[in-house]
Amino acid sequence: MAFFITTTVVTSVYPCFGQKNIDDEPLVNHGRDMDAVKAISPASQDYNWDMLENLQTKYMMYIGTCMNTMESDFRNCNEDVIEEILTKKPVSRECCMKVVKAGKKCYMEIRKVMFQFYQLKRFASQVSFRTNEV
After folding, report:
1. What does the alpha-carbon distance between residue 102 and residue 104 come to, in Å, rounded to a whole number?
2. Are 63 and 101 in contact (CB under 8 A)?
3. What are the pLDDT digits (tens) for 40-63?
4. CA gap 106, 96 in Å, rounded
């Protein structure tokens, strides 16, 4: 009886015994998996346009200003950041400096919009901690 009670208390305090830590694993593997995430079909393109059109104009202007703050190479830097979030592949120092220049609030708002896109929305619930960490 004492063993049963002790085991119950220990497992409730340390529930991760015998469980694999999935936070250390990438959501997507490099290569084909990442290429599949980047692929855009006509239907997903329509979804993305509809989603962007339904955002408030003021908010879209703010996101645009944030993207401009990250300078001309925003697209490549954005793809690198998304790849880091999904695959844990480190981003370049130059890209990190652009994110810092834009500021955390801008960075987080851009990520919110990006993870509403059709290709990325399936990861939205899993990336909030990782997005903040990056």
Report:
1. 7
2. no
3. 778 888 888 998 899 999 999 998
4. 13
Q: Which two tokens stand for residue 57?
A: 């104009």
Burial 108-131 (b: 16+ CB within 10 A, else e): ebbbebbbbbbbbeebeeebeebb
The Cα–Cα gap between 90 and 80 comes to 8
Q: Give residues with Cβ within 8 angstroms of 105, minimum separation 6.
A: none
Q: Where are the beta strands (DSSP E) in the chain?
A: none
Sign of CA dihedral 22, 85, 109, 95: positive
**108: region left, alpha or beta (phi > 0 left; psi from -120 to 50 alpha):** alpha
Residue 58: predicted pLDDT: 94
Burial of 84 (0-12, 13-18, 19+ CB in 10 A): buried
Q: How many residues does the chain have?
A: 134
